């Protein structure tokens, strides 16, 4: 699976900058300001301009940080999203705000036509959503939100009210979405793993005939530089895939899908959330054993189907061709968050993360794609820039596996970068210069979480899931 490398110029990292203190009031106030400004009354938009609706995994990450401001509001964030769940269990990747004009975002509700074309799959009749999904961070978020104020959570019956929905969500991913038959969830569109135009999708997308350029209008270019966004060719292929999925009634099993991939990041998050669901089950009086058993089966399948010893990391599997995709993205490092991952795999992942492809601990942020690959791009969406949610997951995984020194350094550099870039959507991994939109929801939220958590008080044996978590006082 190895490929030729290219040399990347060295940089002066931000790691020499003073690490922000856990009680840094300026950074905390700035992060809180972003979340308050992006709150709509029932949920939080990722940004007011570029992303004016509710996004699925954004809301999960936002709730994780929002709990430090208001546990009640964080609960509401997740309840609003889960209120748009389809009857087949899927949690849609966008829940549309009917007050937002149709031309503010594309694909808009009149493109997805969920209440009509998704009726057979159980789309809600009273609200419009997209028909695809995003990574399942939600059970982990719900458990962490509960831990922020367990007494208030129990008074509101928060966990009993979301447990059934979260279980149905996982049943969907491990049932109709097990398209490879090997026990892992599959993605059907590059938007589903959240890493929209990763080089991992280049080869599978070559099979897709793009939609005609004049058949849609890219609203994203109204708010972002073209050099930092997906190309028109890729975007046309995204539109084609979404159109065909919609016109097929959003059916999963029993349908031929020209794009079908098993992604290690998606499945790692499913495993961690399954462990969290076991804790939610125990808290609500249900049996946690089926969730722990499923987490174990998923972990075994992840290792069997997606581990590449030659690369020292996990790779995506193309279910159409059947082979592993020889592209090294940050998704292949995210299984570090999985508790119980074999020690030799953890060691290999840490070596790969610290090696020339990702330079963990050497540059300010972990890039989204292999720095030494010919197609690496430090500015273009998911083809190289660093993101705060993947950094947060890696920090958590390192800490959960006892790599506290590396976790501390990553935490410090992420907080320094967040304050310097104005809570940007993503950043240049070498300089932490802002890319994408500013005042981005999960950047602010996860900065709050990193500030509020005391790493020394983490329970290392369960750090990847979050049991034993203690937090500082909420920001008011």
Automatic annotation (TrEMBL):
Residues 51-443 form the Mannosylglycerate hydrolase MGH1-like glycoside hydrolase domain. It comes from Streptomyces finlayi. One of its GO terms (biological process) is oligosaccharide metabolic process. The keyword Hydrolase applies. This is Mannosylglycerate hydrolase MGH1-like glycoside hydrolase domain-containing protein. The keyword Heme does not apply. Belongs to the glycosyl hydrolase 63 family. One of its GO terms (molecular function) is Glc3Man9GlcNAc2 oligosaccharide glucosidase activity. Keywords: Glycosidase, Hydrolase.
């Amino acid at each position: 699976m190895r490929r030729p490398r290219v040399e990347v110029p060295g940089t002066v990292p931000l790691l020499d900058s003073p690490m922000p203190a856990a009680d840094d009031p300026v950074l905390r106030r700035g992060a809180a300001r972003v979340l308050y400004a992006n709150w709509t009354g029932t949920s939080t938009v990722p940004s007011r301009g570029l992303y004016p609706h509710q996004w699925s995994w954004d809301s999960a990450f936002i709730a994780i940080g929002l709990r430090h401001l208001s546990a009640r509001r964080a609960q509401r964030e997740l309840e609003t999203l889960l209120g748009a769940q389809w009857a087949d269990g899927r949690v849609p990747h966008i829940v549309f705000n009917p007050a937002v004009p149709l031309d503010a975002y594309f694909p808009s509700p009149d493109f997805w036509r969920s209440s009509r074309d998704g009726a057979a799959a159980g789309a809600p009749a009273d609200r419009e959503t997209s028909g695809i999904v995003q990574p399942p961070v939600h059970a982990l978020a719900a458990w962490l939100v509960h831990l922020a104020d367990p007494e208030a959570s129990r008074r509101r019956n928060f966990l009993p009210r979301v447990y059934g929905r979260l279980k149905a969500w996982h049943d969907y991913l491990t049932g109709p979405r097990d398209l490879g038959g090997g026990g892992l969830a599959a993605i059907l569109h590059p938007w589903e793993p959240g890493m929209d135009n990763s080089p991992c999708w280049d080869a599978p997308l070559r099979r897709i005939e793009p939609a005609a350029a004049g058949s849609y209008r890219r609203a994203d270019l109204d708010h972002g530089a073209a050099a930092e966004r997906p190309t028109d060719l890729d975007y046309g292929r995204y539109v084609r895939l979404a159109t065909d999925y919609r016109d097929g009634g959003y059916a999963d099993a029993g349908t031929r899908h020209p794009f079908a991939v098993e992604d290690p990041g998606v499945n790692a998050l499913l495993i961690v959330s399954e462990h969290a669901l076991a804790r939610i089950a125990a808290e609500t009086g249900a049996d946690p054993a089926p969730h722990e058993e499923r987490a174990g089966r998923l972990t075994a399948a992840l290792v069997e189907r997606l581990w590449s010893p030659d690369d020292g990391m996990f790779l995506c599997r193309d279910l159409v061709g059947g082979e592993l995709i020889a592209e090294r993205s940050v998704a292949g490092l995210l299984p570090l968050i999985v508790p119980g991952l074999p020690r030799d795999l953890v060691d290999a992942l840490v070596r790969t993360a610290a090696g020339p492809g990702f330079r963990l601990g050497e540059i300010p942020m972990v890039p989204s794609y292999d720095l030494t690959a010919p197609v690496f791009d430090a500015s273009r969406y998911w083809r190289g820039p660093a993101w705060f949610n993947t950094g947060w997951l890696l920090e958590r995984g390192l800490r959960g596996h006892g790599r506290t020194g590396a976790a501390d350094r990553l935490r410090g550099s992420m907080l320094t970068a967040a304050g310097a870039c104005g809570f940007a959507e993503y950043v240049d991994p070498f300089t932490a210069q802002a890319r994408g939109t500013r005042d981005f929801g999960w950047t602010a939220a996860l900065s709050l979480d990193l500030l509020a958590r005391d790493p020394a008080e983490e329970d290392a044996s369960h750090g990847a899931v979050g049991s034993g978590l203690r937090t500082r006082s909420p920001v008011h």
